[in-house]
Design brief:
Bound molecules: copper (II) ion
Shape: globular
CATH class: Mainly Beta
Number of strands: 9
CATH superfamily: Domain of unknown function DUF4426
Number of helices: 2
CATH architecture: Sandwich
Helix content: 10-25%
Radius of gyration: 18 Å
Length: about 150
């Protein structure tokens, strides 16, 4: 019985951590060492969920990604060929708090590098684990999706 009550209170504390002005529990915001957080390296690349498009995070300002507004550049390619003219959307999300940001990310093709897009702002307004989902649909092609996950501190 006592164990059950502990679980209930733990769940309530989790709900209170976000959205009502109550400060988060110290441990809730401290994601350092959380295996979900990826180490940022310029050029870090991953294949989309459907194995179609490669998403490479070429630059991040600030680096590594941090709290507030971030500017990223992403290269899209398929079979080594850059994908220009894709429709790209970006959705930051905090999985532990089940919320994102109200500030939309504007995606702008970089005319100087084929297949490169600037994403700004990527608004990561709160400490904790953020998952940034990038969805890309080449002109006349098929959508693919990649998620970059970072621990945002302070
Ligand atoms: Cu949050």
């Amino acid at each position: 019985m006592q164990r059950h009550l502990t679980l209930v209170f733990g769940a309530l504390a989790g709900l209170a951590a976000c959205g009502n002005g109550t400060p988060a529990e110290p441990d809730a915001a401290n994601c350092v060492g959380d295996p979900r957080g990826e180490a940022f390296t310029a050029g870090m690349a991953k294949l989309g969920k459907d194995n179609r498009i490669t998403f490479a995070l070429m630059t991040a300002a600030p680096s590594p990604p941090s709290r507030g507004d971030n500017t990223w550049s992403v290269d899209l390619s398929q079979g080594g060929a850059p994908i220009s003219g894709a429709a790209v959307t970006v959705k930051p999300f905090m999985p532990d708090h089940r919320h994102g940001t109200s500030i939309p990310t504007v995606v702008t093709p970089d005319p100087s590098v084929p297949g490169r897009y600037q994403l700004a702002p990527v608004n990561l307004w709160m400490p904790g684990i953020w998952e940034v989902t990038i969805t890309a649909t080449p002109a006349g092609g098929t959508t693919d999706i990649a998620v970059f996950s970072f621990c945002i501190t302070s």
